[in-house]
Amino acid sequence: MIRHIEFASIYNFRDVGGYAAKDGQTVRWQRLYRADSLGWLAGDDLITFQALKVRTVIDLRHPFEVERTGRVPESDGLDYRNLPIEGRRWDVNTYDDRLGVGRYLADRYLEVTEDGIDNLRSAIETISESGSAPVVVHCAAGKDRTGLLTALILRLIGVADEDIIDDYALTGLATERFIASWQRRHPNATRWPGFGVAPAEAMRLFLADLTARHGSVENYCTDVLQVDAGTIEELQNSLLSRIEPISGG
């Protein structure tokens, strides 16, 4: 199966399927996608997107971002939900090169786990709902807010931390195109060192810090987000399938 799906104007659209999960199961393909902004969908890109038969789009951006750069085009049967999860705006002037990009990003992700509780819970519940899939989760670059929510989902269905970290870092394959596109739109703007990048260290630190705070990522989801056992079970039912052993002949 193909993880990265090619678009002309979207650079970080990929399938989250294929990872080993709990009890010998695997994450189903073509059920959960993660992406950068879908406001650029048009022409052949829109045809490619429609062929995926997406039923639900969860947009994690602020409303002002949606207004500025657009949302996924409306279509019959597509459920669009704008669930912004970021509270405090990033102040990149506080970035300390001595600590590194990974540490800065992990700290911002921890802030989201404090500020975005209601909409993080809503997003997880939406993904778990029967009939929601295929689902696309996206933000602007498809790495920070999207990476955080995807990490929570994958942990709740039993994917190992190293696979979650590797999935997060795959954004690196899209970074060059994403930055080039951004620079074309903002020719006079300057970028901070972490713009567009997704170092594995950021997700590794984030998962470790969230575990240190709450005992486990799962505890954060159940104790802080108040995601109940039924939602987790539905999430697993929707996103997991068992790998059947090949019988000998």
Summarize the structure.
With 249 residues, the chain is of the alpha/beta class.
Can you describe this structure?
With 249 residues, the protein is an alpha/beta fold. It has ten helices and seven strands. Helix 4 (117-128) crosses helix 10, helix 5 packs antiparallel against helix 6 (161-169) and helix 8 (200-214) crosses helix 9.
How would you sum up the major sheet? 5 strands, mixed
Low-confidence stretches: 245-249
The gyration radius over C-alpha positions equals 18 Å
Helical element count? 10
Please state the average pLDDT score: 94
SSE sequence, one letter per element? EEEHEHEHHEHHHHHHE
Structural class: alpha/beta
Strand content: 5-15%
Task: Provide the spatial order of strands within the biggest beta sheet.
Answer: 1-3-6-4-5
* Extended strand count: 7
> What is the straight-line distance between the termini?
26 Å
The best one-word shape is globular
Indicate the percent of residues in helices. 40-55%
